[in-house]
């Protein structure tokens, strides 16, 4: 069947961007909520079989894991970092698969470019920073103030 793409985010502008780029649904999370409260916001609209964590931080990873149904898959892509205190029974009792994934190889890049060209995919917003602005870019990313991607560019 068709995959239902749901975006959970703390910034409504980012949800709006995801919806305008084809996401089916957006859930506004709150930094003030507990992991369980944010997970409940997602689960009330149906079952979650897979989570792609583009942040890769302790809160997003744990909240994503709490959203999953039995036999769910959790893929951590983001590199925010930190230490996660994960309740191990959550993994065992729900039989959750957890994996990390970083940038893919050349073959996958060719497949992606072919898919993009055939399906009229729009690109995300790209925010360019000079190399000497790297720390500023990281600060903005950490604060969630960048919509789209941040790219360092050598002048």
**Strand/helix succession:** EHEHEHEHEHEHE
| Outline | globular
* Helix-strand category: alpha/beta
**What is the terminal-to-terminal distance?**
46 Å
Number of strands: 7
Strand content: 15-25%
Strand line-up of the largest beta sheet: 3-4-5
**Rg estimate, integer Å:** 17 Å
Explained architecture:
37% of the residues lie in helices and 24% in strands. The chain has a three-stranded parallel β-sheet with strand order 3-4-5. Helix 6 links the parallel strand 6 and strand 7. Helix 2 packs across helix 3.
Please tag this protein with its features.
single chain, 155 residues, alpha/beta, three-stranded parallel sheet, two-stranded parallel sheet, globular
Write the layout of secondary structure elements.
Elements lengths: L5 E4 L2 H9 L4 E4 L6 H9 L4 E6 L4 H10 E9 L11 H6 L3 E4 L5 H14 L6 E5 L3 H9 L6 E5 L2
Parallel strand pairs: 1-2, 3-4, 4-5, 6-7
Helix pairs in contact: 2-3
Short note summarizing the structure:
This protein has 155 residues and is of the alpha/beta class.
């Amino acid at each position: 069947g068709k995959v239902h793409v749901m975006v959970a985010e703390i910034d409504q502008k980012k949800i709006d961007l995801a919806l305008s780029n084809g996401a089916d649904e957006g859930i506004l999370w709150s930094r003030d909520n507990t992991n369980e409260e944010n997970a409940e916001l997602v689960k009330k609209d149906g079952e979650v079989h897979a989570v792609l964590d583009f942040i890769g931080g302790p809160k997003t990873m744990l909240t994503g894991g709490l959203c999953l149904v039995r036999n769910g898959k959790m893929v951590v892509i983001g590199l925010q970092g930190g230490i996660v205190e994960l309740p191990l029974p959550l993994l065992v009792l729900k039989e959750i698969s957890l994996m990390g994934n970083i940038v893919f190889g050349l073959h996958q890049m060719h497949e992606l470019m072919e898919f993009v060209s055939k399906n009229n995919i729009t690109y995300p917003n790209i925010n360019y920073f000079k190399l000497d602005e790297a720390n500023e870019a990281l600060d903005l990313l950490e604060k969630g103030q960048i919509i789209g991607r941040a790219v360092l560019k050598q002048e």
